[in-house]
Amino acid sequence: MTDTTLAPGTQASVTEVTAAKDPSKGSGPGKPRSLWGDAWFELRHRPLFWVSAVLLVLLLAIAAFPGLFTDAHPRDGDLTNHFLTKPQLSHFFQADWFGYDGQGRSIYARVIYGTRASILVGVGVTAAVTIFGGLLGMLAGYFGGWIDSIISRIVDIFFGLPFLLGSMVILNAFAERKVYVVIAALAFLGWTTIARVMRSSVITAKQADYVTAARALGAGTNRILFRHVLPNALAPTIVVATIALGAYISAEATLSYLGLGLADPTISWGIDISDAKDAIRDNPHVMLFPAGMLSLTVFAFITLGDAVRDALDPKLR
What we know:
- This protein is an all-alpha fold.
- It folds into two domains: 1-33, no CATH class; 34-316, MetI-like (MetI-like fold, Orthogonal Bundle).
- It has twelve helices and no strands.
- The longest helix is centred in the middle third of the chain and has 37 residues, at 107-143.
- The radius of gyration is 25 Å and the shape is elongated.
- It starts with 13 loop residues before the first helix and ends in a 5-residue tail after the last helix.
- Its main location: membrane.
- It is a multi-pass membrane protein.
- Belongs to the binding-protein-dependent transport system permease family.
- The chain crosses the membrane at residues 48-69, 119-142, 154-174, 180-198, 233-251, 287-308.
């Protein structure tokens, strides 16, 4: 048995003694860390988290204020430039830094302005599926019975629909495909995974002692759900949503490449990649830069999701 005897005249709580033995149990004397505090403690020591966080902050700044990163207009074309003007890597942040496309438009300006559409689609779809799928999963997991049966069968039906094929069919029905239309189409088919993850987490959380105690003390259903169950079932959903965000950005680019996603005059990496496919042999730089920016963005979100997953799951540490 470990000796925890204190010197005469010294007082300490059990929490203080525990925290002194294991720093992961508390952030200070008598102050144990919560799940999120413990996760933040782990994230701060992960280099990949900081790499992805810096990339995402930069991408969000580009999406919000593209004019700060280039003074060229993404739709202005000069056919005298055309493909003949190759990338000028010594001209940092200038219009000809990445060269020009087949219509004489600055590739650098289009890459910068295309960030906004991709980020909007990714964040918009993720928010929609997290709210809608999370709510349905929470109801199914907490109430069970016929409510769980109905929601689970609906989830099974939607799981049977191919994601990209279904999105193509839906988007093909719209003559004008704006950002909000693409968000709605992807969210309509993408909420099922979040619903299943939330359902499993709620089933586990509702069996905990603190939920039983709250129910015994007369707490109402809404209070138990949103005060006790949801905060403790949210972690796996956040991990899945963060990783899925990168996948939704990739899906939007794929649909735009196929001509069924965003369309002109919206500026999108997928549209630029599609426009560059005929020139890839002689002028690969036209496709390289938007494709590279897309890959970097997806990498940042997936890496962030992996770091958050490892921090929230003690078994993976």
